[in-house]
Amino acid sequence: MLPGGAREALAWSRQPAGRAAGDSGAPPPAASNKVYIGLTDADGDFLSYAVDVVSLKLRKVDGSTVETLPLRSRVDFAELVDLTEFVTAATIPHGVYVAGTIRLDYANAAVSVEAGGAPRETRVVGRDGQPLGVVDLEVRLDERNQLAIGPGRPAFLQLDFDLAASHTVDVTTTPATAKASPFIVASLEPVTEKELRVRGPLKGADTVAGTYTVDVRPFNLREARLGEIVVRTTAETAFEIDGQTYTGGAGLQALAAMPSGTPTIAFGTLSVAERSYAAARVRAGSSVPGPRFDVLRGNVIARSGDSLTVRGLLGAKTVSVGQRIEAFGQAGGTAEAVTLDAQQGRVRLQLTQLAGTVVSAQPGELALNLAAIDGRQPGIFDFAGTGTSPAVDADPANYQVATGPMMLGGLTPGSPAAVVGFVAPFGEAPPDFNGRTVVDIETLRAVLGIGWGEAGTAAPFTRLDAGGLVINTANPDIGLRHHIAIGPRIVDLQRLATPLTIAPAQGPGLYAIGEPGRVEVFADFTRFAARLNEKLGGGARARAMSAAGRFDADSFTLTVREVSVGLVPAN
């Protein structure tokens, strides 16, 4: 699920990994090499999904196992929808690895969903309705695409926690209830583009080679030593170090002057085939969340004077309502009303995405009837004070976007659109927003979600073969979830004139069949369809399904590279 365009960007680190995962401190076996592991999450409906990842073991074809993540890590999978977290660079014995086991501990889980525009605390339970405790999940790799570790062959393994296919959510209870059959998919060839985030303390920098080295420490682990990775920078890499910005070589020079142990974060792209990684953005020193500053992230929903409400935040000068921010400061208040004093810190503006339908479009100007700001309903935002006078405060039904020289020819009144950019400074609208990119929503990634209740159904499809599958929209077992989400646009499967066809895209994909405690993964849709037919024919019932790809409204077809089906096993 990572882009592969970082050619000639970085040779993988082959340096000793220190006390890398699975290493007690003794030198690694002579016949060993690196496996790089990342965690991510498919699109889901959760605002937060924080659980403890206790361990991650890989199993060889001969049955022997190796631990790659021996430290308990707190992971919020809902934060990983748009990126992948690099979690370990483990040195493991050579061989062919065919499966893995990941252990999750839900004892102190912090989970929430959005209901009516507000967060709702959520209790995660098993199929028996009882709270989950420690859960072991087996993940099997595609038998034709297994993890081979050999001399000079470090590999990348991505683990995708598919929250949408793993849960049925009921918001009518207090707290809300998420009934789970946890579903994790492993792949060697990610099929969806996502940024890769690498975090850890600085080991050193080589300004001649254009690289720096870090100890991998994901998820704010402070004492972990999970291997080293060399990050290569380019002339375009953007740096922020102790609040100062640099580009390219000047940034690397500034980083090289920092002491060993300086915290760093890199965001970049990975080429699996070439074993290369390039950092597009690097942050270091006090620009990284740490002991000096507390950090809040989110969208400003209201402003009064210099106080911003991001469900608790103080300080900032020009930030307006709707803007996505990352604020550094000193936290205070209570658990119910957190505050952050950023007067001695800083507020970083982040790209914000609007979605809605076009009211009007002309060169340099676009007006939207907003459906969402970064996925949140416009009704939760208080736009008072955003304009030069109350009469011109931002109106979500006629939200004014400056688009500069961007082409708007394909946008007509009533058509869906998305805009990425920054909210205009507070008190200076109109325009309300300065767009950097305008996207026709029809070209956005479409995400399918459908459920058939906890008992499942024996007839989820009217067709299932190598060419694709057709959803049985007349099935009475279909639950409340039966839609395709394309940005803010929701397509109800039961209102389509023709039942939805799901067709595989050309090339390898990521197709998974999940049952309690285990997952089978396929890179080839033909083999996936045959196995799913075999399972359903043997008495298993489909409980939930997610898929992602491109939706063609004319042919009622979703062309995909990713499908996950959760099954209730045959008795």
Helix fraction, binned, reads under 10%
Could you give the distance between the termini?
35 Å
Radius of gyration based on Cα positions: 24 Å
Integer tally of domains: 5
- What would you call the quaternary organization? single chain
Structural class: mainly beta
Low-pLDDT runs of 5+ residues are 1-30, 311-315
Strand-residue proportion: over 45%
In short:
The chain is mainly beta. The chain has 3 helices and 41 strands. The chain has a 19-stranded mixed sheet that branches. Strands 1, 5, 10, 13, 14, 15, 16, 17, 18, 19 and 20 form an 11-stranded mixed sheet that branches.
Description:
The chain is mainly β and 571 residues long. The chain folds into 5 domains: 164 residues; 88 residues, no CATH class; 56 residues; 91 residues, OB fold (Dihydrolipoamide Acetyltransferase, E2P) (Beta Barrel); 123 residues, no CATH class. It is 4% helix and 51% strand. It has a 19-stranded mixed β-sheet that branches. Strands 1, 5, 10, 13, 14, 15, 16, 17, 18, 19 and 20 form an 11-stranded mixed β-sheet that branches. The two termini are 35 Å apart.
